[in-house]
Design goal:
The complex is a heterodimer of chains A (about 650) and B (about 625). With about 650 residues, chain A is mainly α. Chain A is about 45% helix and about 0% strand. Chain A has three domains: about 260 residues, A middle domain of Talin 1 (Up-down Bundle); about 170 residues, Cytochrome c-like domain (Cytochrome Bc1 Complex, Chain D, domain 2, Orthogonal Bundle); about 160 residues, Orthogonal Bundle (Cytochrome Bc1 Complex, Chain D, domain 2), CATH 1.10.760. In chain A, strand 1 and strand 2 form a beta hairpin. Chain A starts with a helix and ends in a 33-residue tail after the last helix. Chain B contains six helices and 40 strands. Classes of the chains: A mainly alpha (about 650), B mainly beta (about 625). At the A-B interface, helix 1, helix 2, helix 4, helix 6 and helix 7 of A face helix 1, strand 4 and strand 38 of B.
Chain lengths: ~650, ~625
């Protein structure tokens, strides 16, 4: 205590800075209002769930008017949507587990056994209540509603205690815009009612209400910004009032005209108010780059987050360049004939055009189709069967595979050490690693750095969304709207990468059970025997729900990556779209227990299918930016190695 | 001057508004000539040193599956860490590392695995990894422990036992196996005969444990034991068939060298004890399961024929007490108290309802929690256990009590201004360390999820912390935890153990998922040196390890002036008020904002000059050294 007093005695009188503060009263008032809105919103949801419960009980007792039950779930969902942006921002995992997760079984995480959890929550209720015969499932409905009530009150109890800060408000609102675009307007959220447009409106109204609390402060700081925002809000809500039909809603127009500009405006607002950003509070990297101002910007997602790399490291360029040499160098394989580029060729968006890639010594093929590497970094799991969760460890599978490189890191290191050029390149790229300069780590890190650099968001479609080109073929616009709406592609191939990495956090990659057949034949369907994720050697994935489950890969650059699917069964995009239109394997008579693709025929017309293909083709980037090295490092004492072919012989 | 007075009054007015949230300017600019009080954060007395990097450092292997002895990259997924003191004093001793996973490997052997190496204290205080030549002819620094040619493959080597008596080491085989298919793994292109344990032929036991030699087991039945190894020669000694076949995670040996406490990771998990007939000879003795409601001594023997292979069934039949996923077990040599983590499971209801029906009993903590949650019993589907807890076992009374409940339970714990700096979820790894003669628990989180405040609001990354807890604190709470910041971001700290000379804590981390620079982006073993410099009697704010630290850092609102106290060891700035606070760099750019806190973690700040400003506008200069 004595020491403490002495320290205090030395303290200087507090000095008040002349320009230290914003007008605090308005800021604090705004935040108090938002907190109140959130509390009130939660109470409203509880009331609606209780009303839903009562209706469900009535429904159980007598054959009851189904429309009353339908209206009750619609109301509950609308009330929930108004504050979902807060709920999911604060505790996404709880929301996905028990409040508004997808209506498919999931596995319990972080336990040393495989346990499947049946889905529950608002999406499941939406699906059942709007199914053909909800009366059949009347008991399940009431059980689900009761469970929802318990779980929601749990969420309410915890989230009522959260210390909300200004930053949370703006971050959650902007995240809400992503959710509306990717999960709301696509119908992902509303598998039964397809009440997507009304729900999108409710979501935005909730966010706007929070913004309105800040209006006095914003007006004081920047009248111009306040006026622009008000005008945007008014016209957005008007548009949603005027366009309520799910199938004809112009999502591209809505994105370009309303959502994406507001994604930027709310960033400007956050900055204008001098509210701290996430990196000032904790330094953990995030998948979404908060400072990006467009959902279709090249920097919308942090590639480094997925690759566990600091892309701002000044040595990153050297590492990428070294990785590029290694990628095209067949010296990595046991016979000096195979390179990464053997199966991943730049002009084909880093695929090889084969049904399945050729195996070593041309003896047959490897197990699956070569997937594109462009934008492949945006994932938390790699390979068709999702067996590797780190990009820099992906290479090890290729190196050890007898049909691919058929070697090991020790042999590779031994070889690379014999080239003074490689030696010095490793030294330049990893100058501080001492005895790890040329090691398992640096080889895999350089290759991973190169793959991380293989990103492209500069297709005609991207340019059109960002307003860099003024027009695009109307078929592309129609195709995009189908993709994100009626054809329900966008509910698994999530924008903007159009892969299975789930928005709005973009942290987890999904796999789907499509029941892709062995052969391209819709009449005599031959079941494919590949168990996919179920057989990926991870004990945590050894679940029935993962039988025949495969990674949802990006459809960007699909025009360059034929043939398609994990087994390369389809040669054209038209065939792929036809497969989905038929309802996948189930639609063609191959019934798998856990098919996650809707079984129903999508009833897409021939023209609509052609439009979807046109949209996919508009996602083709410029592959000429990914260049092949002019030459590979020489090996001074191994002249026979210096004849090796750039990119390999396969 | 007048301006300043006006602002002073404004400040007083502002302070009246409760819960005000200050918006700090993005840049600080100070009037010319203003000299803020200077606070110095000295360099940390703790330093770190990397010892062993998974997947990158090479291990020496024995001849295995017909392949010659050789060298290959070590397995990863570091978990348990054990230490075996060198009684000859020629070196410090041997470090043993678990690799948690089942993978096929032609050189190392299939299944999980272990790596051992020998260290000496160098003159500069760091650890030096010694070259060794083993009896089997292998030479090098890192050695793969040979299981294949000794006791058979192991799997999912999670926790283990590092005997405080003599440094004997056991590795624990977690993740209970129920079929050969479950150990074999799927066929892959690299491993067409299975990517796990490829040899699934019946296993003939060779063992010095009575009744086991020559027994034929289905291959999977040779998994899920505590397995003793010899770290000096890098080979396995025996699987402890007589401790039962269980999904083991942790254990501890009592100083009498007869009692072994055992922790299985399952729901239900039965706290176990093996008592050897002769000290140090664990091949003969009796196995017990804990039963809290048994009158008198609260242990029931599990000794029936067949009970070793079906341990759980017999524990249930005997009415043993059910815990929710027991992980590590630690024993404090100062008083022989035993601590174990029950890491918890969000909705355990369906996992132990059957066992409850068949005779096993719920522990009183679960029953009380169920009641508090308004559900009928812990079997209820709505019963939740998000955070887990640490239990304490008193060997004199054979009573188990909860030492520390995890959580943020905002209503009562932690103190509002302590969150998120202090919270505890899903404690897993556990060890005891001595600092200046005082026992501390070293607690490692392994989150079962990110829900319900297990990570701070607005953070979605899974973050696992390493905490110290002074064991002299009676009825400790989460507010008493001391966070050790010297671990890589995004990593799960899986194991820790102190060196016998006290100066170093050896730490294992698993799959760090952040953008840390090499090697902190790999599974690795590293050392934190410098604990001998800590003096617990030094009663200053600089000493977070002091007895009464919680009181010392308590918020003192009575003091009007803003005071800050930097702590070099934990890299923390303590403040005398709960306040919003911003940190600006030397150029005046805002780099850090925290709200309503009494301490800020500055462990990631580069050396240099900073300015710290509280909600009232008071500025101090902070020199980070």
């Amino acid at each position: 205590m004595k020491n403490k007093l002495i320290v205090c005695c030395f303290l200087l009188v507090a000095f008040i800075l002349l320009n230290g503060f914003q007008p605090k009263d308005k800021a604090t008032q705004a935040l108090e209002q938002v907190k109140q809105q959130f509390q009130n919103g939660m109470s409203t949801v509880v009331t609606s769930i209780e009303a839903l419960e009562q209706v469900a009980i009535n429904f159980q007792n007598t054959p009851y008017d189904i429309e009353v039950l339908q209206q009750a779930i619609i109301n509950t969902r609308l009330d929930y949507k108004k504050i979902e942006y807060f709920h999911a921002y604060f505790d996404e995992e709880s929301i996905l587990q028990s409040i508004n997760g997808a209506p498919i079984p999931k596995l319990e995480k972080y336990i040393p056994e495989v346990v499947t959890i049946q889905p529950s929550g608002l999406q499941v209720l939406d699906e059942i209540i709007f199914s053909d015969d909800p009366f059949q499932q009347k008991e399940e409905i009431i059980e689900l509603v009761k469970k929802l009530k318990t779980n929601y009150q749990d969420v309410q109890r915890y989230q009522s205690a959260i210390k909300i800060t200004h930053r949370h408000v703006f971050e959650s609102i902007r995240q809400g815009f992503i959710r509306v675009f990717t999960l709301g307007l696509t119908g992902f959220d509303t598998p039964g009612s397809v009440n997507a447009i009304a729900e999108a409106k409710a979501s935005l109204q909730g966010a706007y209400e929070a913004y309105k609390a800040y209006t006095p402060l914003v007006t004081e700081k920047s009248v111009g910004l306040a006026i622009v925002l008000d005008a945007h809000i008014e016209s957005t809500l008007k548009y949603l009032n005027d366009h309520q039909d799910f199938e004809t809603f112009d999502r591209l127009h809505f994105l370009k005209k309303f959502l994406d500009p507001q994604y930027q405006l709310f960033y400007e607002l956050h900055k204008e108010l001098s509210v701290e950003f996430t990196e000032e509070v904790n330094d953990l990297p995030t998948a979404v780059n908060y400072h990006s101002t467009s959902i279709f910007a090249a920097d919308f997602l942090n590639a480094g987050y997925y690759a566990n790399m600091d892309m701002s490291d000044p040595l990153m360029d050297d590492r990428i360049e070294l990785g590029r040499l290694l990628f095209f160098d067949p010296i990595l394989s046991s016979n000096n004939e195979r390179a990464c580029a053997s199966c991943h060729q730049p002009e084909k968006a880093f695929t090889d055009g084969l049904v399945k890639s050729t195996a070593t010594d041309f003896k047959g093929t490897v197990k699956r189709n070569s997937p594109t590497l462009v934008n492949s970094v945006y994932s938390d799991k790699y390979f068709w069967d999702l067996r590797e969760n780190r990009l820099d460890k992906q290479m090890l599978h290729v190196i050890k595979n007898k049909h691919e490189f058929n070697t090991d890191y020790i042999q590779i290191i031994d070889k690379l050490k014999q080239s003074s050029v490689y030696d010095s390149l490793f030294m330049e790229a990893y100058p501080t690693l001492k005895n790890y300069t040329l090691s398992t780590h640096t080889i895999s890190n350089a290759l991973a750095a190169y793959v991380t650099s293989l990103t492209d968001f500069n297709s005609p479609f991207d340019q059109y969304v960002r307003g860099e080109i003024a027009t695009i073929d109307p078929s592309v616009i129609r195709g995009f709207n189908l993709f994100m709406g009626k054809a329900v592609c966008g509910t698994c191939h999530f924008a903007p990468v159009f892969n299975g990495t789930v928005p709005p956090f973009y942290k987890e990659s999904e796999s789907e059970v499509l029941a892709v057949p062995m052969a391209n034949d819709t009449i005599n369907v031959m079941p494919d025997t590949d168990l996919g994720r179920h057989a990926n050697q991870l004990p945590t994935d050894k679940a029935d729900i993962y039988k025949h489950s495969f990674k949802t890969v990006t459809v960007r650059n699909a025009a360059l990556t034929a043939p398609y699917m994990h087994n390369g069964v389809y040669n054209t995009l038209e065939e792929v779209v036809d497969f989905y239109n038929r309802g996948g394997g189930a639609g063609m008579g191959w019934k798998l227990a856990h098919q996650t693709l809707p079984f129903d025929n999508l009833e897409l017309t021939t023209d609509e299918q052609a439009d979807i293909v046109a949209f996919l083709e508009s996602l083709t980037g410029d592959m000429s930016t990914f260049t092949v090295p002019d030459r590979l490092p020489i090996f001074e004492n191994k002249p026979e190695w210096n004849d090796r072919v750039i990119g390999g012989q396969y | 001057m007048t301006k300043r007075n006006v602002l002073f009054f404004a400040l007083i007015l502002l302070c009246i508004g409760a819960n005000a949230q200050t918006i700090f300017n993005e840049e600080i600019s100070m009037p010319e000539g203003f000299v803020p009080e200077e606070i110095v954060l000295p360099p940390s007395p703790l330093t770190t040193q990397v010892l062993f990097v998974g997947g990158t450092d090479m291990v020496q292997t024995t001849a295995t599956y017909g392949n010659a002895a050789g060298e290959t990259p070590a397995k990863e997924w570091h978990d348990f860490i054990g230490f075996t003191p060198d009684e000859t004093n020629e070196s410090l001793g041997w470090i043993s590392i678990n690799h948690e996973r089942i993978t096929a490997d032609d050189m190392i052997g299939d299944g999980g695995g272990m790596t051992v190496f020998k260290v000496a204290r160098a003159n500069d205080g760091t650890l030096e990894i010694l070259d060794q030549t083993l009896e089997d002819g292998r030479s090098g620094q890192f050695f793969n422990v040979d299981f294949v040619n000794t006791v058979g493959e192991t799997g999912m080597n999670c926790g283990g036992i590092s005997s405080g008596v003599d440094g004997r080491i056991w590795t624990a085989e977690e993740w209970f196996r129920t079929s050969n298919a479950s150990i074999n793994g799927s066929a892959t292109e690299e491993y067409p005969n299975g990517s796990g344990v490829r040899d699934t032929a019946d296993f003939v036991v060779s063992s010095d444990i009575a009744g086991w030699n020559g027994r034929t087991l289905e291959k999977y039945e040779n998994f899920n034991y505590m397995v003793e190894i010899d770290p000096r020669e890098a080979k396995a000694i025996r699987k402890q068939y007589n401790w039962g076949r269980q999904p083991f995670e942790g254990g501890a040996i009592a100083p009498d060298n007869r009692i072994v406490y055992l922790g299985p990771d399952s729901t239900p998990g039965f706290f176990g004890m093996f008592v050897a007939n002769t000290p140090g000879d664990f091949t003969k003795g009796t196995l017990f399961a804990y039963k809290h409601d048994k009158p008198g001594w609260k242990w029931v023997p599990i000794w029936e024929d067949g009970s070793m292979l079906a341990h759980s069934d017999f524990a249930v039949a005997k009415g043993a007490t059910m815990f929710n996923r027991i992980e590590w077990v630690a024993l404090d040599p100062a008083d022989n108290f035993v601590y174990f983590t029950a890491t918890g499971r969000d909705n355990p209801g369906s996992r132990w309802a059957d066992e409850d029906e068949d005779g096993a009993v719920h522990n009183p903590n679960s029953m009380a929690r169920a009641q508090a949650q308004g559900v009928s019993s812990p079997n209820d589907a709505d019963y939740t256990d998000y955070y887990g807890r640490i239990w304490k076992y008193d060997p004199r009374t054979s009573e188990c009590t909860v030492l520390l409940e995890g959580g943020p339970f905002f209503a009562d714990s932690p103190a509002e201004a302590d969150y998120p700096e202090k919270h505890l979820s899903n404690p897993d790894g556990l060890s005891i360390m001595q600092i200046d003669g005082q026992s501390f628990l070293v607690i490692q989180e392994d989150l079962n999820g990110t829900t319900n405040g297990r990570v701070p609001a607005g953070v979605s990354n899974r973050t696992c912390e390493l905490y110290l807890l002074n064991l002299s604190i009676e009825n400790p709470t989460i507010d008493d935890l001391i966070r050790l910041t010297a671990v890589p971001r995004g990593a799960e700290v899986t194991g820790s153990i102190q060196t016998p000379d006290g100066n170093t804590l050896l730490v294992n981390v698993q799959h760090p998922s952040s953008d840390n620079p090499f090697p902190y982006n790999h599974s690795l073993t590293f050392a934190i040196h410098g604990f001998n410099t800590i003096d617990l009697d030094e009663e200053t704010f600089n000493n977070p390890f002091a007895f009464n630290i919680a009181e010392d850092t308590a918020v003192d609102e009575s003091k009007e002036e803003f005071s800050v106290y930097p702590n070099p060891t934990t890299r923390t700035i303590f403040m005398n008020q709960a306040t919003d606070v911003a940190l600006f760099d030397a150029n005046g750019k805002r780099v850090l904002v925290q709200r309503n806190v009494t301490q800020i973690d500055v462990s990631r700040l580069a050396k240099g000059t900073y300015y710290i400003q509280n909600a009232a506008g008071t500025v101090k200069k902070l020199i980070v050294q």
